[in-house]
Amino acid sequence: MRRQGLIRGAAQVVVVGVDARGMGLIRECLGTEAVLPTQSTPYHDALEVAQSARPNVVITGFDEDFEEAVRLGPLLQSQVPGLQLVAISEKTDPERIRAAMRAGYREYVVLPEDSALLRQAVRESHSSGASVEDQGQLIAVVGSKGGVGTTLIATNLAAELSPVQRVCVVDLDFSMGDVAAFLDLQPKSSFQDLLASLSRLDQRMLTGSVTVHPSKVHVLAQPTELIADEMVSGDQVLQVLTVVADTYQIVIADCGCRIEEATLTTTAVADLVLLVVNPDVPSVKNAWRRLNLMERQGFDKSLVRLIVNKWRKGGELTLADIESSLGVPVAATVAYDDETCLAAINSGRILREIDKKSPTARDIGAMVSLITEGATRVESGPSEKKPFSWLFK
Ligand SMILES: Nc1ncnc2c1ncn2[C@@H]1O[C@H](COP(=O)(O)OP(=O)(O)OP(=O)(O)O)[C@@H](O)[C@H]1O
Ligand SMILES: [Mg+2]
User: Fold this and answer.
1) For residue 322, how far is its CA from the centre of ligand 2 (angstroms)?
2) Rounded to whole angstroms, how far apart are CA atoms 60 and 356?
3) Alpha carbon separation from 393 to 128, 139, 186, 321, 327 (Å, rounded)
4) Where does the pLDDT of residue 388 fall: very low under 50, low under 70, confident under 90, or very high at 90 and above?
5) Residue 309 pLDDT > 90
6) Fold designation for 11-127
7) How far is CA 267 from CA 147, 286, 293, in A?
């Protein structure tokens, strides 16, 4: 998962209750070793900011409001697991140092004298716990329109990866999602339960909320009750995905085809976006609109892998038509095989369990290399060159 604004190898820091001079000293001391905020957060906003930013370290000023700084210590510790707390002051005061230690602050630093101490605390905070390098890959599976096969691909791709990787499928298609049904699972908890306890969300709570399929695919299901997409903010989705990516090696998010905050946020931080199209005009046209939107939002198009599902030769469009219309190469084709697909969906099983030799299962199996080897095109995907670009202009 790509955390926006995060420099690889640098700790993320939130600063609370520090004036401009203090901010300057912190910046001077930490340099490029940390991702620093542009300004200090007021004490009363600190918990909320720490919960959403999930920093490695919170540096709290002890001079502006000593009592607030002490009160914040245990609060941050209990609500944001794994956080390192550092107290900062302009003067050494044994009474205050003891109060800071009792409140859970690991270090009490006076700048610029204790610069080395602050640098060390930040460095160590970053090496403990899940770092960005430890985080799983986030793969967003996005449909160009309804029914193109987003869920079928998300679930079966996860099943192909699960023998060797810890994989979790997150159903982000809140109103229409059906990942659990595709795998014949009866989830006891869902995404919505995690949203209700976001402030306490950690890896243990997550693993208690997923449902496990015999293929070893873990599923974070969509809410049992219908919820409006707009009720879930991008920030909430980000918090959940961060914990999922800290827990699993591969996270496959079934984003469905609707454009709303949760899925826009997911694609913004995804390592790869699998854009699923069918070889027909409405589907490709919608993919074109989606790509344009992503481009307008500054999304890096090189992270998109175009998947042509329900592919069969002699259909409405050729692969060359699709590529030249979208300006993106086809990364993989997935063969049309309605008999096996329907049998799998109706019995809640994965394609390979129905028919090991199904061409659809074979093609989804080949897609694994897009994720594990960084391939940009699956070898079997033929590509004919026959421009047809006027269709979508
Ligand atoms: N490769 C394929 N060959 C034949 N049929 C397929 C293929 N892929 C998907 N289908 C069929 O298309 C239908 C829709 O599949 P699926 O539910 O995965 O799509 P979706 O994009 O997730 O749809 P929704 O928008 O409803 O979430 C299913 O009936 C499925 O059997
Ligand atoms: Mg679906």
Assistant:
1) 22
2) 58
3) 52, 29, 45, 13, 12
4) very low
5) yes
6) Rossmann fold (3.40.50)
7) 19, 16, 12
Q: Which atom of ligand 1 is nearest to the CA of 155?
A: 18
Q: Is the peptide bond before 112 cis (omega within 30 degrees of 0)?
A: yes
pLDDT digit string, tens, across residues 204-230 = 889 899 999 988 899 999 876 666 656
Q: What's the rounded Cα separation, in Å, for the pair 20 and 9?
A: 26
Report CA(105)–ligand 1 centroid distance (Å).
53
Neighbours of 181 (CB within 10 A): 17
Instruction: Dump pLDDT digits (tens) for 246-280.
Output: 999 999 999 999 888 888 888 888 999 999 999 99
Give the ligand with the smallest distance to the CA of 274.
1
Report residue 332 as tokens.
Answer: 């993989």
Polymer length in residues for the chain: 393
Average pLDDT of the residues of the chain: 87
> Residue 365 corresponds to which tokens in the numbers above?
């199996």
Measure CA of the first residue to CA of the last residue in the chain; give whole Å: 34
Please indicate whether residue 359, judged by its CB atom, sits closer than 6 Å to ligand 1. no
CATH 3.40.50.2300 residue ranges for the chain: 11-127
The per-residue pLDDT for range 28-55, each reduced to its tens digit, is: 888 767 778 888 999 999 999 998 888 8
391 lines ligand 1 (CB under 6 A): no
Ligand 1 pocket, residue 176 CB under 6 Å: yes
CATH class of 137-392: alpha beta
Q: Cα separation of 264 and 150, whole Å? A: 16
The rounded percent of the chain whose pLDDT value lies above 70 is 90
Strands, E assignment, the chain: 11-16, 34-35, 57-61, 84-89, 107-110, 137-143, 167-171, 211-212, 218-220, 250-254, 272-277, 304-311, 330-335
